[in-house]
Amino acid sequence: MEEINRSLFLWINANGDSPGWLIALATFIARDVIAIVPLMIVVLWLWGPRSQLTSQRVLVVKTGVALLYALAISWSLGHLFPHPRPFAIGLGHQYLAHAPDDSYPSDHGTVIFTFALAFSAWHRIWSGAVLLATGVAIAWSRIYLGVHWPMDMLGGLLVGVLSCLFAQIFWLMFGSRLLPLLSSLYRTVFAFPISKGWVRH
């Protein structure tokens, strides 16, 4: 498995002949596209048609729970199964600055794949498909730039599957109490912008 991991990495990883524009594009995808996760969470909670607002907030809470599970699992796996990054062992070419910490599973991969799977399960197939494509692009970019192994990204995908499953079980047990509690807290904290009509009630 390790040999396959290394072979795939070297096949994807950029080198001295790689075009500058592609490295620049990969850098943008690797560093900045992940911002779609907090941005969409905030937008879906604060705005939307009144008829869809409750379902949007259910999606936000379930996705948030899944992300918390995902990050906890990722952190645990990173400590249980430490694995050096490619550049830490002198393999391939590195084009993105990164601390030489453990690589498995990828935090970026874990977050974006969990987010995509959550939308596939609890929103629309098309939105999940778009986000999965985004996740593949982020996974490719971080391997291409030399800071992750392919298996780090596969690990993030598997963590996402497990986290969405846990989140669904959690929601069935506690969702009916959690959403009203969070909504009440939101109305208290955001009372002023709500009163001005800047965000939804």
Spell out the blueprint of helices and strands.
Layout: H1 2-12, H2 20-32, H3 36-46, H4 50-80, H5 107-122, H6 125-144, H7 150-189, H8 191-195
Helix pairs in contact: 2-6, 3-4, 4-5, 4-7, 5-6, 5-7
Descriptive account of the structure:
The protein has 201 residues and is mainly alpha-helical. It contains 8 helices and no strands. The mean pLDDT is 95. The chain has one domain (2-195): Up-down Bundle (Vanadium-containing Chloroperoxidase, domain 1). Helix 2 (20-32) packs across helix 6 (125-144), helix 3 (36-46) packs antiparallel against helix 4 and helix 5 (107-122) crosses helix 7 (150-189). It comes from Pantoea coffeiphila. InterPro entries: PAP2/HPO, PAP2/HPO_sf, UPP_Pase. GO terms for molecular function: undecaprenyl-diphosphatase activity. It is an enzyme of class 3 (hydrolase). The chain crosses the membrane at residues 20-47, 59-77, 125-145, 157-174.
